[in-house]
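REQUEST ID: PR-0412
SUBMITTED BY: lab tech R.K.
PRIORITY: routine
TASK: structure prediction, single protein chain
INPUT:
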Amino acid sequence: QIRIWARKEAVANGYVDYALNITGPVFSFLEDLLNVSYPLPKTDLVALPDFGAGAMENWGLMTFEESTLMYLPSDKFTSRKAMIAIIVSHELGHQAYLFFFLFKWFGNLVTMNWWNDLWLNEGLASYFEYLGATYVEPKLSLDKIFYDHVVQPVLRDDNEVGVRSLSESEDKIKGSFSLMSLFDSITYNKGASITWMLSGFLTEKLFIRALTSYLKQFSFSNANQDDLWTHIQMIVDAQDEVQLPASVKEIMDSWTCQNGFPVLTLNLTTGTISQEQFLNKKNENSTDSYNNTWIIPISWMRNGSSQPLTWLDKSSKVFPEMQVSESEHDWILLNVNLSGYYRVNYDQLNLKRLVHLLENDPKAIPAVSRFQLIDDVFALTQFGYTEIETALELTKYLAREDELFIWNMVLLNLVPENLESTLKNYEVYPLLKKYLLKRVLPIYHYYAGFIRENVDALEDDYFAQVYLEKFLATLCWLGLQDCLTLSSELYAKWMDNPEYK
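STATUS: complete
OUTPUT:
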């Protein structure tokens, strides 16, 4: 039995109907996926007018801040539905893995042995919440949303000296302050990102099979990450399709027990890939010796063709298959579709070829990989691995870029919010303005046309609903005249609406 409790007028007006309608399908999705039944006879979802925690996965009685659970039937747009689906899925997952629902499995059915492995609850749930959300809202793009909302933000948090590892030793977790500090982006987003990578190199079939075994053995009890590794190893040993370069524990401990993450550097001429911890080379405190190495799964593409997964299990290794010819059409792309939790630093030869490819056929590189390629090069510039000219070279193709989530990331790097008040004082501002406006016009006119003629046509465009307001605000700030005109038109239309008079 599934029920939702809310204020009378909210129920009467149908504000909780959407959440109620997706809860059953999400439960069924998780039960079928994990082959583990929800053990309670009922679940109640309670919408509270004021709830600072946002949501809480109490077993059988989940509580939510009402704004995270309510959806106006008159609201046609996907972004609101997506947010509710993600949150509901997370809480259900705590029942089994879809965060609030997901915690019901990964936090309630099986609970971590101690707080140092909190990511087993929250990280796994944060991964499955996106699977659940895209199940009930199939028009959402799982890989785009996951990279934009989960991986990219935590890569920006996980690159400082002294950042903690995902799994700490038990003796480090003492007192309420240290406990509360664990509820951060490392636990949630890095945990989800590592899970994404793990599922990718195992294949989802083996990963889910291992999770099912783990959940069934530790139902109504406690487990630590080694218990999870043991069950994954059992599944890996029982088949011969997926071969790993080391034990599951050795591979995964390199990601969960070490802080930070690696950056891979590819030399196209020699086929050499090396790794080091991604740290700010401009910061004197980060010039100390850091000898962390990871066992890294590398998905890669050559000239548009996907290649077999390979592994980097030492600080440097030569891959003869990655040596290229003199043809400018011979290029390599690593970490395709964000399969691994790391950044990539290409040599100038490969970057030149990727720039040429993007200018002539940007769709030859998947959208998520285009996002990642540009995000990586801006981060590499910021941290002293490469020069700003390299990053700008990769943006020359942007007049042909039609993905709004990629444009949002570009503007976030070139026109950061914390510099908007001062950027116009810099000598480079007129050149930057001219450079950006020249390239942004095609995608601007595409969306401006919908806004003027048929905004309802954007009801399934998730990223338009999430980022279009900020996108237009930035273009108006840059002085795009038609954007300023559009803003005036929208304001006049709003003022003429009888509802607001």
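NOTES: DSSP finds 19 helices and 14 strands in the chain.
REVIEWED BY: pending
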